[in-house]
Amino acid sequence: MQVSQVREPLINGEKSYENITSDVMAPVRAKPGKLWFLGFGISALVMLAGFAAIAYTVWFGIGTWGVNRTIGWGWSITNFVWWVGIGHAGTFISAILLLFRQKWRTSINRAAEAMTLFAVMCAGLFPLIHMGRLPLAFFIFPYPNTRELWVNFNSPLLWDVFAITTYLLVSLLFWYMGLIPDLGTIRDRMKTLWKKKAYNFLSFGWKGSARHWQRHESMSLVLAGLAAPLVLSVHTIVSFDFATSVIPGWHTTIFPPYFVSGAVFSGFAMVLTLMIVTRRALNLQEYITVGHVESMNKVIIATGSIVGIAYITELFMAWYSGVEYERYAFINRAMGPYAWAYWIMMTCNVISPQLLWIKKLRRNLTFTFILSIFINIGMWFERFVIVVTSLHRDYLPSSWSMYKPTWVEVAIFLGTFGLFFTLFFLFIRIFPVIALAEVKSVAKSSARKFIRKSSKKSKPENE
Amino acid sequence: MKNIIYGHFTDDHDLLEAVKALQEKGIHIADVRTPFPVHGLDTVLKLRRSHLPKVAFIAGVIGAVLMFSFQYWVFTEGWPLNFGGKPYSSILSFIPATFEITVLFAAFAMGIAFLLRSNLGPGSIPDILDEEVTNDHFQIILSEKDNTLSETELAEALEATGALDVKQVNTKK
Amino acid sequence: MEKQNIPEPVPFKFGKKLKTYLGIAAGIGLLALLIAVFVQQLPSERIWANLWMNALMFLFLGLGALFFWTVNTLGESTWQINFQRVMESMGLTIPFAAIFFVLAFPGLKDLFEWTHTEHLDRILQEKTPYLNMPFWMVRFAVYFILWSFFAWYLRKISVKNDFEPHDKYLGRLRATSGWFIVFFAISSSTAAWDWLMSIDAHWFSTLYGWYIFSGMFVAAIAVIILITIAFKKFNILPNVNKEHLHDLGKYLFGFSIFWAYLWLSQYLLIWYSNIPEETVYYVERVNNYKTLFYMNLIINFVVPFFALMTRGSKRQPLYLAIVSLVVLLGHYLDLYLAIMPGAVGHENASIGLLEIGLPFFYLAVFLTLFFISFGKAKPVPENHPYAIESSSYENI
């Protein structure tokens, strides 16, 4: 496959295959520095604090939270949807961008997918805690209870169980299958015997045989084909949790695709937040280039604009439908007691990403970093608006209510950040952050300068 | 007793040329090992297309049928319950879970089939001849067993393609 | 990769034979219309609804192709360059779609309940700020002026680069594509509300615009595939190879699934919530158009899903062409189900000579315009800085 000269290179600097191996492996080989220990330590502490808050909730009950009978879903479901959303970027990058032959994905897919797994783990915690009795969480799986009653397959909440579980497992499979060859690479570079053995165990005994590669490629492609609709299905089903109901502001048919788009939007924002720091910290600037950031910013502007159009469509249809409850729900969003949340959402999600139409800003790392945090905040508020603002005004004015989180809910939310970053810090030390084999396969066509080692013995008839 | 001759290149293009050159001489190539999937190598080696997609399809169909009939059974035979006045067999309600299980079955069946077929898995010990294969060596392995030529002739042929570090080993296996 | 022998390109000529065929097709369509009006004396709303449906399909093919081209340009994709002129030329039919719409204007009263301003119920009265004739006309004009402008301007830049190559043209192409996509993102939804959703004036669905868009996109891809395969066969586009067909096939496959996804999302949510204001739309269709309703799903989802699942199926030109044709007909049916129940009602609607014959007229006009536009420029863009990428890639 030939690549046009005009195209921006994906890898900067002069690289040979060997350089790529050593560059990407450096963080795995080196001893972690002070900053790493500091970051890991803080994350672990925050995580433990979060676990303590979860234990507190389980011990004393959901009464320790700010939720009430009108607003039965508070921060917890907001956080759940937010984390699941973030967990969409990784598989989107590795599956859908693979199908669309976007080569720039090779530098970021591994880390993004790891991030996906961690985010989905964080997300999965919330519904489990919200059910109140954590040790009985297995009730959600379909098995006949003592009265031979099965779970309710009519319920979107149950569909969620299937969707999130499948998503976590298939993402894990996809991620790990991609990792196998790279773990083999690490194994062969390790000097100590136990590390060699450990990495050989992890790499499933990979040896790079042509037949294995062929099967591996074929499998990756089909897995991508399977994962692509899976990514769509997960947030679609999360949106069904809301949209199948008859609550104004929740029941709207645009929810499934709009949730998916919002999820990819927030997921890419999180990938940017993480990768802009990681590439500096791990010295991978030549692999995760400004061009990569620009490409991700383009995805952000596309998905962000889709989300914006969906907001406006909802608003318009609320009026167009002529249903008074629907109209009230949207007026209340924009002008009611929680209007501040609505306007934070609008500013962060709809207005601020439009700045990315300017090429200079798209390629500005500081700006991108700040913007990505804005989007993370905005997308959290989107879920807050959907959950809390829609619920706090019931059909019956007598049950109108307000909601404020308690310290327990805040602590659990922060705790999930701890969990997320703890896992991420471990990840960058144990696994290669960049998909080595995949980057090598595009190096020749897409590196700024590829150093081709004179491979053959010099033969007189050749020279 | 298997006598093995191997050598390597440090560029994928050279590897492809060498494979072609060896094949022209009628030499059978036991294995080629590379750090990444070399484009076009499978066609040159005439590897047949993998059956893994078929495995995925069959497993997916099994998953879909199982999950759908299970839900149908639960709601019509197992314990029919009225939820919001919907019919017992609400096919639409069964679609999401059926889809998820379809994907789950297809993906994992394919993953497991890949590992089994390639003899990979936790605890599998590979026969690595050159550790740089996972770095930047593109290795060709010839086996005396598959070829009419003698060991030295094979080594010469491999040398002639420009391969570096041509070596011979006898593995007792 | 083995070098294939690429035959010399045959210059495209809009010959006499082709013109005769198209003339016959147009004649069949007109005859069907005349018979329907004068011999069968069908109710007027059925005639107008058919004119409306075909005008929409005519527009969808051009607009969908323009979208496909611009979105590929914007995504810095390059594989489409070898048949890009097909999409460009299809886009140029957009302004003529406006004529077909205008021809159906006398029937607006028959089609749209909200135009009967003298006796509107309370709900429709509340909608008048949006659903009123003057504003509707303004929107109609804006859509067509801007869509046509973009189609014309993008084509102009693309052709200009053939003769005086310069990198600035690609930049301008991308920038203009961006503006088009922004406008298209809004107008594709609002146009779907204006021209289709407001037929069932009381009903509403936020997803509707995107659903119609997905159907339009699939229909346009089906036509791009059919034309590209024909041009490849006659060596007008000899540089189109199996890889291009494979990718086009993937689009047809993927977006058929996407269409089904949106179909399911809309139907499932309305079915689940069971709110009378919303279910009315589907009750009418499920009860009175049962066969067509389920056939729609089978032709547009089940058929392409199973027919295009394997790799080989997308690389087999004839096979892919047949599936594309089926899917194109399927989206006709989808449009039929969107329009007829509301505009004609199940007592009068049926599929007869008019429904089968009339599309031939529109098809003939579409192809005539397309061939004229296609003949005016080189069949493949020249001097495109990324041209090399379109001829040298392979699917795994």
Task: Describe it.
The complex is a heterotrimer of chains A (463), B (173) and C (396). Chain A has 16 helices and two strands. By secondary structure, chain A is mainly alpha-helical. Chain A has one domain. In chain A, strands 1-2 form a two-stranded parallel ribbon. Chain B folds into two domains: 2-35 and 136-171, Alpha-Beta Plaits, CATH 3.30.70.120; 52-117, no CATH class. Chain B is built from five helices and four strands. Chain B has a four-stranded antiparallel β-sheet, with helices on one face. The model of chain B has no long low-confidence stretch (mean pLDDT 87). Chain C has one domain (13-376). Chains A and B meet through helix 1, helix 6, helix 8 and helix 16 of A and strand 2, helix 3 and helix 4 of B.
> From the alpha-carbon coordinates, what is the Rg of chain C to the nearest angstrom?
21 Å
* The level-1 CATH class of the largest domain in chain B: Alpha Beta
Total DSSP E strands of chain C: 0
- Domain count of chain B: 2
Number of domains of chain C: 1
CATH architecture of the largest domain in chain B: 2-Layer Sandwich
The N- to C-terminal Cα distance of chain B equals 6 Å
- Strand percentage of chain B: 15-25%
Number of helices, counting only DSSP H or I runs of 4 residues or more of chain C: 16
**Residue fraction in strands of chain C:** under 5%
- Class computed from helices, strands and strand pairing of chain C: mainly alpha
SSE series of chain B: EHEHHHEHE
Give me the Rg of chain B, rounded.
Answer: 25 Å
Q: What overall geometry of chain C do the principal axes of the alpha carbons give?
A: globular
Q: Taking strands numbered 1, 2, ... along the chain, how are they ordered across the largest sheet of chain B?
A: 2-3-1-4
The description of the largest β-sheet of chain B is: 4 strands, antiparallel
* CATH third-tier fold name of the largest domain in chain B: Alpha-Beta Plaits
Protein name (chain C): Quinol:cytochrome c oxidoreductase quinone-binding subunit 2
Keywords (chain C): Membrane, Transmembrane, Transmembrane helix
Protein name (chain B): Quinol:cytochrome c oxidoreductase membrane protein
Pfam families (chain B): ActD
Helices and strands in order, then pairings?
The complex is a heterotrimer of chains A (463), B (173) and C (396).
Chain A: E1 11-15, H1 17-29, H2 34-60, H3 75-86, H4 89-99, H5 105-130, H6 156-189, H7 193-202, H8 210-243, H9 255-281, H10 290-321, H11 324-335, H12 339-351, H13 359-362, H14 365-392, H15 407-430, H16 436-446, E2 447-450
Parallel strand pairs in A: 1-2
Helix pairs in contact in A: 1-16, 2-15, 3-5, 3-9, 3-14, 4-5, 4-8, 5-6, 5-15, 6-7, 6-8, 8-9, 9-10, 9-14, 10-11, 10-12, 11-12, 12-14
Chain B: E1 2-9, H1 12-24, E2 29-33, H2 41-44, H3 52-78, H4 91-117, E3 138-143, H5 151-160, E4 164-171
Antiparallel strand pairs in B: 1-3, 1-4, 2-3
Helix pairs in contact in B: 3-4
Chain C: H1 16-39, H2 44-74, H3 84-91, H4 94-103, H5 108-111, H6 122-127, H7 133-163, H8 167-195, H9 208-233, H10 242-273, H11 276-288, H12 290-307, H13 311-314, H14 317-343, H15 353-375, H16 387-391
Helix pairs in contact in C: 1-15, 2-3, 2-4, 2-8, 2-9, 2-14, 2-15, 3-15, 7-8, 8-9, 9-10, 9-14, 10-12, 11-12, 12-14
